[in-house]
Amino acid sequence: MENNHISGAEALLKSLICEGVDTIFGYPGGQIISVYDKLYDYTDQLHHILVRHEQGAIHAAQGYARTTGRPGVVIVTSGPGATNVITGLADALMDNTPIVVISGQVASDFLGTDAFQEADVVAMTQQATKWAIQIRRPEEIPAAVARAFYIASTGRPGPVVLDIAKDAQVGMMDWSHERCRAIRSYDPCPKINPQDIDEVAQLLETAKKPMIIAGHGVMIANAEKSLLEVAEKGNIPVATTLLGLSTIPSDHPLNKGMVGMHGNLGPNSASLEADLIIGVGLRFDDRVVGDFNAYAPNARIVHVDIESAELNRNIKTFKAIHADADDFFKALSEKIKPTNNPEWLAKFDTRDKFETEKVINPILKPAEGPLHMGEVIRAVADAAPKNAICVTDVGQNQMFAARYFRYHADKSFLSSGGLGTMGFGLPAAMGAKIGAPDRTVCLFVGDGGLQMTIQELGTIMAYNIGVKIILLNNDYLGNVRQWQELFFNSRFSQTPLVNPDFNKIAEAYGIRTGKVTRREDLADAIADMLSDDKAYLLNAAIGSDEMIFPMIAAGTSYEKIMISKNENYFPLK
Amino acid sequence: METKLYTITIFSENSVGLLSRVSLIFTRRGINIESISASSCSIPGVTKWIITAFTNRELLDQVAKQVERCIEVLKVFVYDDDEIIYQEVALYKIETNLLFEEPHVERIIREHSARILEIKRDFTVIEKTGHYRETEALFEELKRFNLKQFVRSGRVIVTQSPNEYITDYLVEQNRRINKINDATE
Ligand SMILES: Cc1ncc(C[n+]2csc(CCOP(=O)(O)OP(=O)(O)O)c2C)c(N)n1
Ligand SMILES: [Mg+2]
């Protein structure tokens, strides 16, 4: 018989295995060394990726979690190891990502004494986690691990922290593991009320200008199919938020594009005119709404979310429905009747045509001048396999990637949406590739953001992680530069970057690289990049003064949309 | 938006660290907690917290939902004063001499239906139970007499309903959990 009188450290690993974990991102240290010691015996079951910075570990775990739908697991040491993951926790909380962080902690006798490498991790992470708990005794470990995975992955997913004191790792206990199935004070599965569904079906029948907005919640709930069924059955136009991208294929006729600050003219204008907006799995945050007092003035808003605290939080709804996105769409598709509003649908297409002519074509088919971010991104999208995953960093690179990549497969877009964390991209892409080794992972990253977590090239080298890094190199903190040009009289305060030779850096890590400055070389450069499944850095020289449009200035209404520096579009005129 | 004093009761599992998580939610929305008290309640294993805060209803309802999101929180209720029966207790410490030298003091104690809790050679402790304005009124009067110490508790409340509102909720949750356990056995 197996000996189950084991140390807390071993119990932790065995419990992780019971929770289905096979991949861990982490970094060792003094107060977690017992766990790492035991890990030495479990390398056949637990694949540990040694990152180069703990922030890299948690972003990688986020990328992993968001492509696989399973919690990403991070192990770090106490003090600085744990504080280094806080950005990632805040990011994962905002973007509803299931993450389990295990941090070492000083022995319980030393707690509160400012012992070496002591940090009050539970207190520090209260506002950046869904749940955080300190463990002081070995026998508490299995149940805490079980709870952690249950809480992280159910309902509205989120990050949790298990802070394990050294003596709890070292102490012996009798191990057995039981998965958590329910918690009395936490009900993650709201029940659909059939009357609500009838009411929404009714609203759709009488609406003349309906629109569905699909958010990240649709992706998290794996509701892509049921969304499409509702859209097609009802002939309803669908827009997505940034993190809702890829919940409906780019080339689907009912996909009308993205809403928000840099969204498409069609759906953004439509929000002013719509008489019914069904928003599912989104927060209606400021980047989506613009001016909270002027949003969707003519619409009844139906808001569906698995988090009751999001309902009626940012905007007043006509009907708030506390439900899982997939449950909602499935129930609605039973009740929905086809709508017939050809003029309404045509409006999207007219505006789309206008945007294509004014904004998109000049980027995709320029006659001359430096490379545009958008054309590089589209060329990659066209050359990559259809199920490729688009990962972005933050900035112009992110907005261009969101707009110009093409999405054909579910869960193809991965980006730091809520927190907007520069440096997210490279480690997240790593995690995505580890989670989905059969898919091509294309990272679009700026010269600023790449340097925030560039040390992870070491991890990519060590584990042969085949991410395709497309560096959109404009020698600027471009997104901030754009705001400075538009709103601060072109005073480029602290935004020009003096950059290293990125190709040399990547090559030092044994990563193949390419460089492209001329339009006529782009296709070949991309073909070279995609010729194998290994890591690659393509350094694309982008014009420094490139700007992303359309743009709705922060906090303003959608009645005025900038389509270039000097030109506005007025949807209502 | 009308700002006034509201009472919030939070029912939770007994859990370390929940207090700071909950109070951070108030702080983040800029709400200052006026008083807070934690106690056991009529249901074994359930902790009941009573918080009072000056704010507006809309914001408070949002905060209540945020608090309810905390994993160990069972249920949160927000009350107007007319929905609850509430009391506070205040203690006042004065010099014992005053009882002999200042004839007013005895009269004040009697008029306010306060009682003397303890008399020591140097000081005397007066207790007054009542609503804020009542304990405050006594404070205003005693203030003139070199009040040595003054303290007022947080609110304790019971609802105007016959039972704890939480009771039904717990029945429902226990049913939910039994169902899950039955299904997996
Ligand atoms: C950690 C962090 N610091 C600062 C910012 C603010 N910020 C947003 S975009 C941006 C510029 C990004 O520059 P770069 O990575 O070169 O991308 P580009 O916009 O040029 O594509 C900055 C500084 C941020 N989002 N995250
Ligand atoms: Mg840049």
Structure description:
- The complex is a heterodimer of chains A (573) and B (185).
- Chain A has 573 residues and is an alpha/beta fold.
- Chain A has three domains: 5-174, Rossmann fold; 194-343, 3-Layer(aba) Sandwich (Rossmann fold), CATH 3.40.50; 371-541, Rossmann fold (3-Layer(aba) Sandwich), CATH 3.40.50.970.
- The longest helix of chain A has 23 residues, at 342-364.
- Chain A is globular and about 75 Å long.
- The termini of chain A are far apart.
- The mean pLDDT of chain A is 97.
- Chain B is an alpha+beta fold and 185 residues long.
- Chain B folds into two domains: 4-79, Alpha-Beta Plaits (2-Layer Sandwich); 85-156, Alpha-Beta Plaits (2-Layer Sandwich).
- Chain B has helices at 18-28, 57-69, 97-101, 103-111, 132-142, 166-184; strands at 4-13, 33-40, 46-55, 73-79, 84-95, 115-119, 123-130, 149-152, 156-159.
- In chain B, the strands form two sheets. In chain B, strands 5, 6, 7, 8 and 9 form a five-stranded antiparallel sheet that branches. In chain B, strands 2-3-1-4 form a four-stranded antiparallel sheet, with helices on both faces.
- Chain B is elongated, with a radius of gyration of 21 Å.
- Bound molecules: thiamine diphosphate and magnesium ion.
- Residues 393-397, 420-423, 446-449, 472, 474, 476-480 of chain A line the site of thiamine diphosphate.
